[in-house]
Design a protein that fits this description.
Elements (H helix, E strand, L loop, with lengths): L4 H6 L1 H11 L5 H11 L3 H12 L8 H15 L3
Helix pairs in contact: 2-5, 3-4, 4-5
Length: 79
């Protein structure tokens, strides 16, 4: 999987929203993993967010998973 630093920079507002709105304040390495995962689609990106934060995704509420997916989708649509 190739890493695109320019994409990472363009997604900075998404990472800010994940932190401020949803409490997922990812470190740089975690953000990079999310950027790489998004190449495989939104669901892979959502999983990467939870993994990077050390959260067991299956034990979270559907509302939280949906909110993370909606946040990612809002920022990657039309990229």
């Amino acid at each position: 999987m190739s890493y695109d630093p320019a994409m990472h920079e363009r997604l900075a507002p998404m990472f800010a929203d994940l932190c401020v709105e949803l409490g997922f304040c990812l470190h740089d390495k975690g953000q990079r993993k999310v950027v790489e995962a998004l190449e495989r689609g939104l669901d892979a990106g959502v999983e990467a967010v939870f993994r990077a934060e050390g959260v067991d995704m299956p034990s979270t509420s559907g509302d939280l998973r949906r909110a993370v997916r909606d946040c990612l989708k809002a920022h990657v649509a039309g990229r």
